[in-house]
Amino acid sequence: MAGDTRVQDEMRQAILRGDFAPRQRLVEAELCDQFNGGRFAIRSALQALEAEGLIERQPNVGARIREVRLEEAVEISQIRMVVEGLVARLAASQVDATQIRHLKDIGKRMRSAVQAGEPTIYSNLNAELHQSLRDIAHHETANRIIAQLHAQLVRHQFALSRVPGRSSVSLVQHLDIIKAVTARDPDGAEAAMRAHIESVIEALQGMAGAG
After folding, report:
1. Are residues 104 and 90 in the same domain?
2. Are 84 and 155 contained in the same domain?
């Protein structure tokens, strides 16, 4: 069982890193060599990743990397807005002094990353902030839903992070979220998170229009 989990985890990370192209066909024999796993482990991993929405199976084709269209990414983000709004609300109602210091430190590092023109560092801090809020909120169902949504959005989020000026816009929004959560303001935290993800949706729609 541990071996099966290893293969599944390694395949998931490879997909999220962009090692495979959208709609790329996945050949079991090649996957066995790439991930050093048996056919049973590979098939088990493919089944799990299909459930997560990362791959799809096509008649007479087999498994391939699922391509998430921008229009679908917008719909997924609309769901994310509701769930992450709840997470922010819960975090604001439960945050303790140590967690407040940590969130404020993330905010300072995010500001420094934007000022230094370090989009990769900023992106990593973005992920750290959202994960920290989920840890504080401690809502397992919300965590599970968000993890699945994120996996399907990761390619578009990467493209969005490279849009000129996007980091500066999202920095202000993230700082608003941190301010509300650390002030233990549930209504303000939920509103700030919803405003942030609404901005993400608008940016995605702009990318779709540009295409």
Report:
1. yes
2. yes
Residue 189 belongs to domain spanning: 70-210
Quick one: 96 and 188 in the same domain?
yes
93 and 179 both lie in a single domain:
yes
Per-residue tokens: 205: 């729609």
H helices of the chain, where?
2-17, 28-35, 39-51, 70-94, 97-115, 119-137, 140-161, 166-182, 186-210
User: Residues 70, 210: contact at Cβ < 8 Å?
Assistant: no
CA 129-132-134 angle, 5° bins: 115
List of residues 6+ apart from 111 with CB closer than 8 A: 171, 175
Residue 37 sits in the same domain as residue 86: no
CA nearest neighbour of 113 among 126, 100, 132, 104: 126
The residue with tokens 């500001």 is 111
Q: What is the pTM of this model?
A: 0.74
Return the closest-CA partner of residue 152 out of 75, 52, 63. 52
Q: What is the CA radius of gyration of the chain?
A: 19
What would the pLDDT profile of 115-148 be if each residue is shown by its tens digit? 999 888 988 899 899 999 999 999 999 998 888 7
